[in-house]
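Q: Given only this backbone (442 positions), what sequence would you predict?
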């Protein structure tokens, strides 16, 4: 992996080092020392918008190129808004776009442009990008070895391979192999994150059910936030694959190799007809009437070339329409990874349901504790009322008046006894009322 990093990362230009050394040793015209450590060539590149791309061709050759935005737009025939999806400075949801000459893929860390002849990735130190490059190289080399072996094999094996040609990934076009690896990387990455979240979530939720504390509640809150964000990302990838599967036109648009072959065939056919339709000496048409002033051969060739390009585009559009009837390869590929990403989404949905069940259980526990507190408060209120009876009796007998009952020696005991019995009867009456009304489980 480190060798691949050193090979893919562009080396520091020597012009920047020379400029920096000369600027440090030579003062400016105003007599001031120039700013040290400023990379003039880097500023120029940033001003031009140059970006480093990793290019992987059909022969598994890797190359680092620096292309600006407009050159990339002309090279892949893409609008600016599609290139904006690949900008690492912006955060866009997962997207798979099929264009006339390229497929724009933005799936998690994998942001690339896939054509019929090459894959262009933004040069990055991310391990997932490097793994994508390595995996693509390995599969392209393996498929090349398989093709050579199939050419040397006998007739029976070739027939058997032709039978299973549509279901084997080695026989997919180049753009579908690159797209498959991107889908596999994205689905694997999301499934790994979902598994890590599951391993962390279930013990934490079980601990929360046994002990409700502020620390555990805060950890569950953070866990739920991560779960919601991950579910949104998985749902977006799933919706994107489902949208492609539902639209046959978009799937037919992604057959870049077939469209390229048809376009090359139409261009070759147009050139052949142009050679038959014009003379080799003066460039005049054999079938059209000869004008008094002969047109220059360059303009006639340019006109014929534009007509051939128009015919090729028309044939490409017709091939896209006819390809809608033969999209089983891409549909099976998308369906396989749709099942994988749907399984990941079901896993996250089950985890969310478990969290919701845990929250409901905690709410039930808190409601039970709250009901117990209310019942205890009701008992305390009843006991306070009974004790208040003693206060009323003490207040009555504490008034400043004289009666014969005060002079009896057992009067105080009788007052305490009668007051206590009356308070106990009142307390028991309240308990009986609570039980009858089912306000308290007694």
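A: Predicted residues:
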């Amino acid at each position: 992996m480190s060798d691949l990093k050193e090979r893919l990362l562009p080396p520091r230009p020597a012009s920047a080092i020379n400029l920096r050394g000369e600027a440090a040793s030579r003062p400016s015209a105003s007599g001031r020392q120039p700013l040290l450590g400023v990379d003039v060539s880097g500023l120029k590149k940033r001003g031009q918008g140059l970006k480093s791309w990793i290019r992987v061709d059909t022969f598994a050759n890797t190359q680092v190129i620096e292309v600006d935005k407009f050159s990339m737009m002309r090279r892949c025939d893409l609008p600016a808004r599609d290139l904006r999806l690949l900008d690492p400075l912006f955060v866009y949801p997962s997207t798979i776009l099929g264009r006339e000459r390229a497929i724009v893929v933005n799936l998690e860390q994998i942001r690339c442009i896939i054509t019929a002849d090459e894959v262009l990735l933004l040069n990055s130190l991310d391990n997932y990008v490097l793994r994508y490059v390595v995996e693509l190289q390995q599969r392209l080399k393996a498929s090349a070895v398989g093709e050579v072996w199939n050419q040397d094999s006998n007739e029976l094996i070739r027939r058997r391979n032709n039978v299973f040609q549509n279901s084997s990934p080695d026989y997919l076009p180049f753009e579908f192999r690159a797209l498959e690896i991107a889908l596999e990387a994205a689905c694997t990455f999301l499934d790994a994150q979902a598994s890590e979240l599951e391993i962390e979530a279930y013990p934490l939720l079980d601990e929360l059910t046994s002990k409700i504390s502020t620390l555990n509640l805060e950890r569950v809150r953070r866990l739920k936030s991560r779960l919601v964000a991950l579910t949104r990302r998985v749902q977006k990838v799933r919706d994107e694959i489902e949208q492609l599967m539902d639209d046959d036109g978009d799937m037919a648009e992604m057959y870049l190799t077939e469209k390229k072959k048809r376009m090359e065939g139409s261009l070759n056919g147009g050139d052949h007809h142009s050679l038959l339709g014009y003379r080799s000496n003066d460039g005049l048409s054999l079938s059209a009437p000869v004008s008094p002033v002969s047109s220059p051969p360059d303009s006639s060739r340019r006109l014929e070339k534009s007509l051939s390009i128009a015919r090729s585009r028309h044939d490409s559009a017709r091939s896209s329409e006819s390809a809608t009837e033969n999209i089983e390869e891409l549909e099976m590929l998308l369906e396989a990874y749709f099942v994988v990403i749907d399984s990941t989404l079901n896993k996250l949905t089950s985890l969310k349901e478990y969290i919701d069940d845990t929250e409901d259980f905690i709410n039930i526990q808190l409601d039970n504790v709250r009901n117990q507190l209310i019942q205890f408060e009701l008992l305390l209120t009843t006991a306070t009322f009974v004790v208040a009876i003693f206060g009323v009796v003490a207040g009555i007998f504490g008034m400043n008046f004289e009666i014969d009952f005060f002079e009896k020696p057992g009067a105080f005991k009788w007052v305490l006894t009668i007051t206590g019995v009356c308070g106990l009867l009142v307390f028991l009456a309240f308990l009986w009322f609570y039980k009858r009304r089912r306000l308290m489980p007694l």
